[in-house]
Every structure is written in C-alpha cells, then in structure tokens.
Write a structure and sequence with these properties.
mainly alpha, 182 residues, binds fe (ii) ion
C-alpha cells in the first residue's frame, strides 16, 4: 500500500520536542492502564510492565544519546540532573520488573515510579524543553527529531527482540540449537 502524503511529510520533518512530548503521553497512558488493573490480572500487569519498560528505555536512550548532548550546550546543570533522574528511573523499573504482579508491593512500586517520572517530565516540559526550543530553532529541532525517531524505532525493535529472546524455551518457535545448523 502506498504511503500517504502525510506520512511522507512526517518522515522528513519531526519536531524533536513534539516527538518527546508525544512519547511522554504514551508512557502516561500506559501508567493509567496499569493502575486500572486488578491484583488478579497477572498476565496483563506483566505485559504492561514490559511495554512500559521498553517505552521508557527507548525514550531515555534517544534523549541521552541525541537530545541531551545538544541540550548540554544550553544548560549543563539541568542536563546533568536529567541523566541522574533517568538512572533513578532505571533502578525503579528494575525493581518493579522483579516484583510479582500479585505482590502487595507491586502497586506501591508502580506509584513511586510514576511519581518520579511525573517530576522528571514536568521539569523537561516546563523548563528544559522551552529553554532549548528557543535556542535551537525550528530547523535544528527538525533534524534532531528525525534522528531521534529513527533511533527510537531501532532501539524499540531490539528491546522487543531481547524480551522475546528471554522467553522460556518452551514458548520459542524452535529450539536455539536449531539456529546453529540453519
Ligand atoms: Fe523525556
Ligand atoms: Fe528524560
């Protein structure tokens, strides 16, 4: 099916800040979904944690590798603080991933992770992004946006593959040893 004109345009021009803010909204939606699950929805909770972990990691990576290095030229202190907050978020995600979905600590860990992210997003959208936006101008934001979208897609794909690779052997389509002789 031919790509629509809208999609072709989107490929050549993506505002970096709009892209990052859209990703923030996606993460917030996933938190809403997760918070609406009951303690017996074990499989759904597990899937949502996995989705959240991938969405947050891919977003964090493109900020750290592409956006923050550019932002550092504008505000070094805020940029360094943002890297530290990502590291706290990663720690909280690891802890959540190790928590059984029916554990009494599960929702408390979701809430703390969500609050940490809300704080981080507030700083990015309220102060950091507007400051960078003024300095960069539309053209640079568009270049950064395209670069980040591509990187985001690549990182998401490899994170999803890593999750599938970690699935129990019984759920894989064929045993690993078969690959060696392929
Ligand atoms: Fe962000
Ligand atoms: Fe961030």
């Amino acid at each position: 099916m031919p790509r629509s004109k809208k999609n072709q345009e989107a490929e050549v021009s993506i505002d970096a800040i709009e892209l990052l803010q859209d990703q923030h909204r996606e993460v917030e939606d996933l938190f809403d979904e997760l918070e609406n699950t009951g303690s017996r929805a074990l499989k759904t909770r597990l899937q949502l944690v996995q989705k959240l972990a991938i969405a947050i990691e891919a977003h964090s990576q493109i900020e750290e590798k592409i956006f923050y290095p550019a932002g550092r030229e504008v505000d070094e202190d805020m940029t360094l603080e943002a890297y530290e907050e990502h590291s706290v978020v990663r720690h909280l995600i690891e802890k959540l991933k190790q928590t059984e979905a029916d554990d009494e600590h599960f929702m408390a860990r979701v809430t703390v992770l969500k609050e940490m992210i809300e704080h981080h997003v507030e700083e990015e959208e309220g102060e950091y992004f507007p400051k960078l936006s003024k300095k960069f101008g539309k053209k640079r934001l568009a270049t950064l946006g395209v670069e980040m979208q591509e990187a985001y897609d690549d990182v998401t794909e490899s994170l999803q593959q890593a999750v599938q690779g970690r699935a129990p052997a019984a759920s894989r389509k064929k045993p690993v040893s078969a690959d060696l002789h392929a």
